[in-house]
Amino acid sequence: MKLTLQIKLLPTQKQFTSLKNTLIEANTACNTISETAFTNKIYNQFKLHHQCYHPIKSSFNLSAQMVVRCISKVCDAYKIDKKVKREFRPLGAITYDARILSYVKEGISLWTIGGRLKIPFVCHNQKYLPYIKGEADLVLKKGKFYIFQTVEVPEEEIKDIEEFIGVDFGQTDIAVLSDGTNYNSDQLKTVRKKYSKVRASVQSKGTKGSKKLLKRLSGKEKRFVSISNHAISKQIVQKAKSENKGIAIEDLTGIRKTAKPKSKAQKTELNRWSFYQLIQFLSYKSLLSGVKLIAVPPAYTSQTCSCCNHIGIRKGKHFRCENCGNIADADENAALNIAAWGNAINLPEKTNMFCSIVDHFSVLKPIRSLVGG
Ligand SMILES: [Zn+2]
Fold first, then answer.
1. What is the pLDDT of residues 242-255, one digit of tens each?
2. What value does the mean pLDDT take over residues 296-307?
3. What is the pLDDT averaged over residues 266-272?
4. Are strands 164-169 and 246-250 parallel, antiparallel or unpaired?
5. Taking the model in full, what pTM does it have?
6. Could you give the residue ranges of the DSSP H alpha helices within the chain?
7. 3-class DSSP state for residue 112?
8. What residues flank ion ligand 1 with Cβ within 5 A?
9. Which neighbouring-strand residues pair with 108?
10. 107-117 as b/e, with b when 16 or more CB fall inside 10 Å?
11. CA of 303 to the centre of ligand 1 (A)
């Protein structure tokens, strides 16, 4: 599976300047190439190379391979739209390949206009470094240099399992598992509330500076959501792997319908919580760990009694069954139903309770195809 690693470079002041100047030089070259491409209507990489390579190589302080990368960057930009002349920001990202970037003992060795540099780095997913494949982008983000490196990580073989952990998303909590584990949204709510207060006071001003501040706030919130989603999905996948179980979640297309907000305040809170992202993380992490992940239809999962399968009553946080007297946490009850669905879909011959219903959902696709890997 292809993943992108975010690697933070730790350059010295001198190396930082070299990296920055490299971005400026390369992007200036891109603008010159773009001018040629647009004026002569040449958008094919081979033809553009023929036209631009020598003039660019002789007038810019760039290595041969970097000139090739620049031509490629311009071509890629025109693939999207040829109607307007493409212009590149002086500090925009540039792409490296194995000829101009490699990993050495001291860190990352990469070509810059100040010569080849060896720069130490930090990477939170060191274990994927042996799987480096393909290109890497050099990016300057908020005054820090990063390498976004493509890796191709082998997927672990998915084992046959008999039981599933059911995961219920976001009625009142972020996720509740069928074993009762609860990932609640208290911290998220606190953070969101804090930001929305600041946002409201800033928004009323409407100045240029306040727009900048708003943008920064939304970035911080997104990062918080993303960190939480990473942590939650990692824990769920680890749990499933250690218990030798699969993971059953509700079909992605049903999630927005299921998390029906009761109030406007709840609506913004729930909708903005990125369930889609959480599912994506769950999907790729389980694939990497060889954990089976399936999506089940969301119909009835919150109204069915997990003990006797009768339709019961959901009232706020509680679920009550008039048939068998079962009183349970509503989300946990739903998670148990999702787990049962998972078992039924996985091994229909071993379960009998849902089989007749399962047949009606022959359109079920594994979640992998829903989120595109
Ligand atoms: Zn019941």
1. 999 999 988 755 44
2. 81
3. 49
4. parallel
5. 0.70
6. 13-40, 45-59, 64-80, 186-203, 208-242, 252-258, 264-272, 275-289, 330-346, 355-358, 367-371
7. strand
8. 305, 307-308, 310, 321, 323-324, 326
9. 103, 119
10. bbebbbbeeeb
11. 10
